[in-house]
Every structure is written in structure tokens, then in C-alpha cells.
């Protein structure tokens, strides 16, 4: 398979001569990405506080969160096309500003207009969806190829740390300010995401002053991105494996863990400890991948993805809670052993002028099918019982990544690296 050359860097440096954490351009992008991740995580949590304070009903919460998901899925594909057509920095700016504008609308609608809150949530989801592929592509412009895995690991560390510390911080703030103020705080985070990142390298399609070719329609350009994805068998295999793990494994554990924590262990502590262990494990996995350079990177990544199967497997039998917690920690480590090399390989192998579209396809498929899995798991548990469903989902988590690892080019996520003297 022919590997597309990496995009030209605005300032070339020999790979590895300087830590990416000392690069001001990356640090600005990292801070903006972190702010967007924290804002994305915080919204459902803050809206949950609104339910507890009876400012929003449970049905209203479901409608608002569904609208946010719909907005995300509608915008992520369009955002990928726009980020390949135009400046990726501009796409980040305007999409994050849209998400920021949604926050005060949510605050105004709280307790007054569910219709306004639903529309604002859809706008917030659209901003989030449009900026995700642009952030991925902008990383490839800001960071040279030799340091992208370290950069992706640093971003993952920041986002995972936010999800670990965020609940405590939000709960603390809720003791002093109301939910509407917390929603405005989410808007400020999106402003940081919009304004802080600097410009990337030259535009993917050429220099800014170069004559622009006649553009095809948005649909045609997105289809062109699908064609680019099909050129990389490892990408299609990885996307299929990731989707299976999210739609089956993650969905099954999301539904089953609270039930098992309540019914088998008679305590909410197992639920809290297992979810915390997953995040802590993911932090450890991100630290590991910042320096890990295995010869067969793709195989190691698929093995990490398959490790999520230990989470549903631990819920099948009445084992000690420590076994469940340990299984979730292993699953967290494994998911980042996949995620970081996956993002890095996509930035390396995909044609630079189609990178945002291919990234949007990643988010669209993996995130888009997750709600389907969540919707089907509960009826399946009711019809067949929790043990058969968890067993089937665990088997899928183990077997689908194993099958994906057998696809041509999957071993290295592309062509094998050239070794000195070879």
C-alpha cells in the first residue's frame, strides 16, 4: 500500500530533538483541545445536577442529550469536509464559538423553555462535532511526524484527567453557584477552545494564496474521503473493531454495571470504583504509549482494544469486587494502547488534504452506532438475561479485534517502518 507523504511542516525540525511539551504552538492547541473535552464532558453532568435540583425533568434531560447527540452526528461529517476545504484553525474557531453560544441559551431556557434548551443542545452538539475532525487534522499541521504519538498521548492524558477530577470540581462549584452559572462556565471553556489554538502549517490543499480549484459538493467531497479511507485496509479493520467494542462491550457494561453493583454487591461503591479504575487505567495507558514504540504497533493496539472484553467478562460471575475493578483498569489501559497509535497512524498514513474527512468518518461511525448499542442492550438483557448478553459482548470484544489484526497492513497500521540499514 502506498503511504501518502506527511504534510509539509511550517517549521521543520529533526524528530525527537525537542519535547512536544516545550512547543508553544502545540501547547496552545493542547489547551484548546483540553478545554473542549472538559466542556463536552461537563454538560451532561451539569444537566444531571439540574435534574437533582428539579429545574429539569428526567424526560427533558433525555430529550436535551438526544438533541446534542443528533447535532454532533449531523455536524461531524460536514465539519470534516470544511476542515479539508478551508483553514482548520478557522473551523475550530467557528465551531467552538457556536458551542459557546449555546451555553447561555441553555441557561436562559433552564426551567423556562424545554424547546429552547433542546435547540441549544443541538447547537452545542453541532459545534462539538464540527471541531473534532478539525482538531485531529490541526495536530498533524502543528506537530512534526516524529512527535505526534507523544502529542496525542498528552492530549489523551489531559482529557482523561479532566474526567477524573471534573466531577469533584463541579460538585464543589455547585455548592457555591447555581446550575445556570455552571452552564455559563461551560461556555467560557468553549471560548478558550475557540480562541487559544494558533494557526497550523500551510493549508492542506496548498498555500493560502494559491488559486483554488472548483469545489465539488459537500456530499461528493465526503464520499471522496470515504474512498481515501478504503485505500487503507488497516483503517477499515480498526474502525470496525472499535465500533464493535463501543457498540457492544461499552454499551453492555454501561447498562449492566449499575445493575450488578446494586443487585449483586448491594452497594454503589463498586460502580464508582470500577469507573474510576477505568479512567486511571486509561491515564496509565496514555503515559505508556507516549514512549512505547513496538515493532508490530498495530497488533499491540488491537490487543489493547480486545482487553476491553475483560470488563463484561468480570461481570458474568459473582467474583470479588476487586476482580471487577482490576478488569476495568486493564480495559482502560488497553483502550489507550489502541487510541493513541490509531490517531497517530491516521495522521501519518492518510492523505493530508483528506485527513479531516477520514477523521470525521471515524467519529461518525464509532459514535453514531454507540446509541444503537445502548438502545438494544437493555431489551436484550430483559429477553435473554444478563449473563448471555455479557458473554456474547465479551466474546465480540475479544474476537473482532483479533480478526481485524489479520487484515493486510494491520500489523503496522500501514507499511512497516523502514529500519536503519535495511
Report what the structure shows.
With about 425 residues, the chain is mainly alpha-helical. About 75% of the residues lie in helices and about 0% in strands. The chain contains 14 helices and no strands. Helix 4 crosses helix 13 (about 355-385). The longest helix has about 30 residues, at about 235-265. It is globular. The two termini are about 20 Å apart. Mean pLDDT is about 85; it is low at about 1-15 and about 205-210.
What percent of the residues sit in helical stretches (DSSP H or I)?
A: over 70%
Low confidence ranges: 1-16, 203-212
The percentage of residues in β strands lies in: under 5%
Which structural category fits the helices and strands? mainly alpha
Q: How would you name the oligomeric state of the polypeptide chains in this document?
A: single chain
Strands, total number: 0
| Through-space gap between termini | 19 Å
Largest sheet: none
Globular, elongated, flat, extended or rod-shaped: what is the shape? Answer: globular
The averaged pLDDT comes out at 85
Q: Radius of gyration, Cα only, in angstroms?
A: 21 Å
Number of helices: 14
- H and E string: HHHHHHHHHHHHHH
Amino acid at each position: 500500500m502506498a503511504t501518502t507523504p506527511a504534510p509539509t511542516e511550517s517549521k521543520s525540525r529533526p524528530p525527537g530533538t525537542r519535547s512536544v511539551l516545550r512547543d508553544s504552538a502545540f501547547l496552545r492547541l493542547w489547551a484548546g483541545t483540553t478545554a473542549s473535552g472538559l466542556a463536552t464532558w461537563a454538560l451532561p453532568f451539569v444537566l444531571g445536577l439540574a435534574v437533582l435540583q428539579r429545574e429539569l425533568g428526567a424526560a427533558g434531560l433525555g430529550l436535551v442529550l438526544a438533541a446534542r447527540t443528533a447535532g454532533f452526528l449531523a455536524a461531524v461529517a460536514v465539519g470534516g469536509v470544511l476542515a479539508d476545504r478551508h483553514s482548520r484553525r478557522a473551523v475550530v474557531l467557528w465551531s467552538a464559538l457556536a458551542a459557546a453560544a449555546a451555553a447561555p441559551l441553555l441557561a436562559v431556557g433552564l426551567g423556562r423553555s424545554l424547546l429552547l434548551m433542546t435547540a441549544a443542545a443541538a447547537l452545542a452538539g453541532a459545534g462539538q462535532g464540527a471541531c473534532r475532525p478539525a482538531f485531529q487534522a490541526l495536530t498533524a499541521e502543528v506537530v512534526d511526524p516524529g512527535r505526534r504519538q507523544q502529542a496525542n498521548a498528552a492530549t489523551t492524558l489531559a482529557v482523561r484527567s479532566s474526567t477524573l477530577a471534573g466531577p469533584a470540581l463541579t460538585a464543589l462549584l455547585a455548592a457555591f453557584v447555581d446550575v445556570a452559572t455552571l452552564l455559563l462556565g461551560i461556555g467560557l471553556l468553549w471560548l478558550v477552545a475557540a480562541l487559544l489554538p494558533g494557526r497550523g502549517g500551510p493549508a492542506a490543499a496548498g498555500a493560502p494564496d494559491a488559486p483554488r480549484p472548483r469545489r465539488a459538493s459537500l456530499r461528493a467531497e465526503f464520499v471522496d474521503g470515504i474512498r481515501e479511507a478504503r485505500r487503507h485496509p488497516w483503517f477499515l479493520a480498526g474502525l470496525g473493531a472499535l465500533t464493535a467494542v463501543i457498540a457492544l462491550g461499552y454499551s453492555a457494561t454501561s447498562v449492566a454495571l449499575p445493575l450488578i453493583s446494586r443487585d449483586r454487591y448491594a452497594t454503589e461503591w463498586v460502580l464508582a470504583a470500577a469507573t474510576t479504575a477505568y479512567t486511571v487505567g486509561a491515564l496509565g495507558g496514555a503515559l505508556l504509549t507516549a514512549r512505547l514504540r513496538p515493532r508490530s504497533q498495530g497488533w499491540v493496539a488491537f490487543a489493547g482494544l480486545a482487553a476491553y472484553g475483560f470488563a463484561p467478562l468480570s461481570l458474568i460471575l459473582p467474583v470479588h469486587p476487586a476482580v471487577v475493578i482490576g478488569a476495568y483498569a486493564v480495559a482502560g489501559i488497553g483502550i489507550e494502547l489502541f487510541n493513541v497509535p490509531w490517531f497517530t497512524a491516521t495522521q501519518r498514513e492518510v492523505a493530508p488534504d483528506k485527513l479531516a474527512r477520514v477523521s470525521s468518518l471515524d467519529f461518525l461511525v464509532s459514535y453514531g452506532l454507540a446509541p444503537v448499542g445502548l438502545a438494544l442492550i437493555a431489551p436484550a438483557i430483559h429477553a435473554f438475561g444478563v449473563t448471555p448478553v455479557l458473554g456474547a459482548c465479551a466474546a465480540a470484544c475479544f474476537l473482532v479485534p483479533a480478526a481485524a489484526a489479520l487484515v493486510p497492513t494491520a500489523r503496522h497500521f500501514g507499511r512497516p517502518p523502514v529500519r536503519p540499514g535495511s
